[in-house]
């Protein structure tokens, strides 16, 4: 896979590099990344799927939802039916979300 491929998502390359480092049994306890990577849901999910402890920067206005949030199709009061799903609960400030979260073990 080359960087010029149009189907490459931005987080693929760093995840591949992390997997290569782990494959040669280099030991590390946590992955740190700046807010550019922190914006990528796919990057964060890939780190979690690899079982890694991670911390990424996020914008100060970032909204947060619990892991069990569901996307639902709202019922239109009148007019055309809704086309886009919305979260079933309201977002909270990420600082409030982290107050009850567990850190890296």
Provide tags for this entry.
single chain; 105 residues; alpha+beta; two-stranded parallel sheet; two-stranded antiparallel sheet; 6 strands; 30% helix
Model description:
The strands form 3 sheets. Strands 1-2 form a two-stranded parallel sheet. It has a two-stranded antiparallel sheet with strand order 3-6. It starts with 11 loop residues before the first helix and ends in a 6-residue tail after the last helix. The longest helix is centred in the first third of the chain and has 12 residues, at 12-23. It is elongated. By secondary structure, it is α+β, with helices and mostly antiparallel strands. It has helices at residues 12-23, 35-38, 41-49, 94-99, and strands spanning 31-33, 54-56, 63-64, 71-72, 86-87, 92-93. 30% of the residues lie in helices and 13% in strands.
Helix content percent band: 25-40%
Biggest sheet: strand arrangement: 1-2
Radius of gyration: 18 Å
What is the mean pLDDT?
82
**Oligomerization state:** single chain
Which H/E pattern describes the elements?
Answer: HEHHEEEEEH
Distance between the termini: 34 Å
Q: What is the approximate shape?
A: elongated
- Biggest sheet, in brief? 2 strands, parallel
Return the structural class: alpha+beta
In brief:
By secondary structure, this protein is α+β, with helices and mostly antiparallel strands.
Describe how the helices and strands are arranged.
Layout lengths: L11 H12 L7 E3 L1 H4 L2 H9 L4 E3 L6 E2 L6 E2 L13 E2 L4 E2 H6 L6
Parallel strand pairs: 1-2
Antiparallel strand pairs: 3-6, 4-5
């Amino acid at each position: 896979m080359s960087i010029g491929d149009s189907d490459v998502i931005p987080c693929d390359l760093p995840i591949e590099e992390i997997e290569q480092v782990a494959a040669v049994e280099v030991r590390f306890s946590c992955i740190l990344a700046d807010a550019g990577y922190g914006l990528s849901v796919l990057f964060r999910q890939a780190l979690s799927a690899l079982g890694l402890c991670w911390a990424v920067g996020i914008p100060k206005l970032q909204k947060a939802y619990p892991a069990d949030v569901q996307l639902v199709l709202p019922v239109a009061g009148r007019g055309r039916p809704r086309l886009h799903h919305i979260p079933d609960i309201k977002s909270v400030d990420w600082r409030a979300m982290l107050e009850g979260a567990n850190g890296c073990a």
